Amino acid sequence: MRFPIRSETDAFRLTVATGALAALAVVIGLLSTTLVGVVAFAAMGLLALSAYLRSADRERRQPLREAAEAPHPRGARAGARHVLVVANEPLEGEALRERIAGAERERVEIDVLAPVLSSRTHLAYTDIDEGMRQARRRLERSLSWARTQGFLAHGRIGDASPTASIEDELRDFGADEVIVVTSGDEVDHWQEREQLRRLREELDVPIVQVAAVPSA
Q1: In the chain, where are the structural domains located?
Q2: Residue 86, Ramachandran bin (φ over 0: left; ψ between -120 and 50: alpha; else beta)
């Protein structure tokens, strides 16, 4: 949703639209009654305003899309499928292995990003050192698992802004698919929800959420 007036152009368009609606309402009023004209003006104005507020803001940047479409200095090798895995939980489980491998079993390179996660209510007070330690353990376990499964994998720890970290990874490596690994089938962490929303909104590649379930 966008604020109705963000520039002089918006103000001009709003003025013209309001005038056009007023003229149409006058015509309706002359053909029927003044009350009908007023009601028609109010109804059309509300409908027009609602449509305007819900319309996409073409001027809004989409940093994830821009990063994904930029040249990638460290992209996957020719002939390899590149998968960005956001490790909100350590990588493990048969379902995740099958998803990464893909139906065609082509060569796969994995870029593992271990974000620093925090509670929304304690975001300003989170112990960043502890968050980094948890992310480092997650990354080490994830890379060990990926390499044990035979995948070529590299990765890094994200910073305090997971979305910005994802943008950096997309700009460096690109992605043919993005997998967000969560603790369960239901996404209940606010940062995970925001990650999935932004990724699905801005990227054209498959965006998949997979619950990390330990292998039997």
Answers
A1: 8-54, 63-211
A2: beta
- Here the tokens at position 132 are 């980094």
Place of tokens 């103000």: 11
Q: Which residues contact 216 (CB under 8 A, 6 or more apart)?
A: 94
**Cα 183 from Cα 116, distance rounded (Å):** 15
pLDDT tens digits for range 190-214: 677 788 888 888 888 999 999 877 6
CA distance 64 to 70: 10
**Helix, strand, coil percent content, the chain, rounded in steps of 5:** 50, 15, 35
**Cα 156 off chain centre by:** 20
This prediction's pTM: 0.66
Task: Classify 63-211 by CATH class.
Answer: alpha beta
β-bridge mates for residue 181, sequence order: 87, 210
